[in-house]
Amino acid sequence: MKKLKLAVLLASISFAAAINSSAQNTDTNLPAWLTRPLSLVDALNTALLQNAAILEAQNDLEDSHGLVVKTRAVALPQLKATGQYKYTDPDDIEAISIQNYSISTPDQNWNAGIQLVQSVYMGGRMVAAFKAADATEKQALAVYQTSVADALLNVRIAYYDVLLAAQEITVHEASVKLLEKELDDQQHRLNAGTVPKFNVLRAEVAVANERPNLIQARNSYRIAKNNLANLLGYNLPHEIWEDIPLNLTDDFDATPYQINLPEAIQQALTRRTELLALRKNMELQQLNIVNAKAGYKPTVSVFAGYDWHNAQYTQPVTLDHDFDGWNAGAQLSWNIFDGALTYGKVKQAQAQFDKSKTVLDDQARQIELQVRTAYSDFIQARETLDSQQKVQEEADEALREAKQRAEAGTGTQLDVLDAETSLTQARTTQIQALHDYSTARAKFDRAIGSDLVPVK
Predict the structure, then answer these.
(1) So what's the pLDDT on residue 357?
(2) What pLDDT is stored for residue 30 in this prediction?
(3) Alpha carbon 455 to chain centroid distance?
(4) What is the pLDDT of residue 106?
């Protein structure tokens, strides 16, 4: 019976190990791009190639090229070719008799022609079309740059989130080991009869309270890596259940960074691509006013072409008897009164132009607010980081002294547990401060538009 129980136990352990191995997914048969070392620069470059938001922005940029071409088309010449063949029932053709001659149109007709038309004057629309095409192109590029900057900022933050979660695991694992060591020490003392059972119970409670923090840190690590992989556009193998084997090689950016707020605000107002896009939109709305007012003015175009057609009255009528020749001319068109349609278009275009100016002014204020907020967050992160430089050393020293006092009989176990908790808190605050500093710097760089220089 004992052998049977032992066999069942071993089988259960083997099955559980197999399930755990499958769930944890070792690096066997995983794609090389998933397990290779990944620096922050590598992550950003990968995002430029694979990030969904950036790819969508590229598609929008290509789509805008078609709009630019359509906008310019109104000012460019148009070449048209026409052709027609027609058969008519002879019973449906009327004949005319003149001096004993019967004249009628043929029952088969054909004609062809080619014509070049060029608008000469359209009330300002032609010049506005070229200006609008240029503004549209630059607006589309600015929108694309904005999408790229936002996506890269998200990748940076996600990269730092993974680093934070990984280091939190290290901190809480060290804390659990430290508390377990304290528990073992108290258990040995209890066995020796030097401490009461209460000391062991309190140590067990301390270990139990710390383990959920470690579990939460591991979960945050899994989620952070999933988020980073998603931003990088990775199509993860379905065999990966929990832990994505990303190997990040960089650390937090804790280099000193000096900020001049007035200069930063001015830089943001000059370089932020959102403002450039809105300026180009305001320019387009102003050109829409020109286009609307063109309805008050005449349009002039010139044309030249060449025509071919079969003979109509030459006898006998045959399809191969044809005439051809050049033609040219000019055309003037002017809507003297269009039922106030042009007036309505002008009023609408003027209102949209005024609205675009309001939106631009408001966005400028919002960007200044973003810079000030990012600056304030950065100052807080920097001051917090500076305040934590010696805290961990002091917490290590406090724990060492608490243990010495407890061993000498002048301190208590509670002092040791409090010192261990303080050390864990100091380590956690330290890595959180590093994370917040790196993130705040990245957000501030994004707020002032330092990553991209827009086209003027």
Answers:
(1) 96
(2) 67
(3) 19
(4) 77
Angle CA 174–175–180, to nearest 5 = 100
Rounded distance, CA 331 to CA 117, Å?
10
The backbone torsions φ and ψ at residue 40, rounded to the nearest 5 degrees and listed phi first, read -65, -40
Distance separating alpha carbons of residues 395 and 415, to the nearest angstrom: 12
Backbone angles phi, psi at 187, to 5 degrees: -65, -40
162 neighbors 244 (Cβ within 8 angstroms)? no
Whole-number Å distance between alpha carbons of 40 and 257: 19
pLDDT of amino acid 255: 84
Q: Which neighbouring-strand residues pair with 110?
A: 85
Residue 76 DSSP code? S
Which residues have CB under 8 Å from 173's CB, separation 6+? 214
Question: CA 197 to CA 187: how far, in whole Å?
Answer: 8
212 backbone φψ class: left, alpha, beta (φ>0; ψ -120 to 50): alpha
Distance CA 288, CA 296 (A): 14
Residue the block writes with tokens 């966005």 = 363
At residue 338, the pLDDT reads 86
Omega of the bond leading into 37 within 30 degrees of 0 (cis): no
C-alpha torsion angle, residues 267, 270, 273, 279 (rounded to 10): 160
Task: Report how far residue 42's alpha carbon sits from residue 50's, in angstroms, rounded to the nearest whole number.
Answer: 12
Question: How far apart (Å, rounded) are the C-alpha atoms in residues 304 and 331?
Answer: 11
Q: Phi/psi at 310 (nearest 5 deg)?
A: -80, 160
| Element spanning 61, H or E | helix 52-73
Residue 428 CA to residue 167 CA, distance in Å, equals 9
83, β-bridge pairs:
112
As a whole number of Å, the CA-based R_g of the chain is 40
Backbone phi, then psi, for 106, in 5-degree steps?
-70, 155
Contact 401, 303 (CB under 8 A): no
Q: What is the predicted pLDDT for the residue at 4?
A: 35
- What DSSP string describes 385-454? HHHTTTHHHHHHHHHHHHHHHHHHTSS-HHHHHHHHHHHHHHHHHHHHHHHHHHHHHHHHHHHTT-S---
- Helix axis angle for 197-231 and 125-192, nearest 10°, is 160
The confidence score (pLDDT) of residue 72 equals 87
- In the chain, what's the furthest Cα-to-Cα distance? 147
Place of tokens 């001015």: 266
In whole angstroms, give the CA distance from residue 152 to residue 450.
12
Residue spans of the chain under pLDDT 50: 1-28, 453-456
CA distance linking residue 179 with residue 242, whole number of Å? 28
- Is the Cα torsion angle 348, 350, 352, 354 positive or negative in sign? negative
In contact, 285 and 353? CB cutoff 8 Å: yes
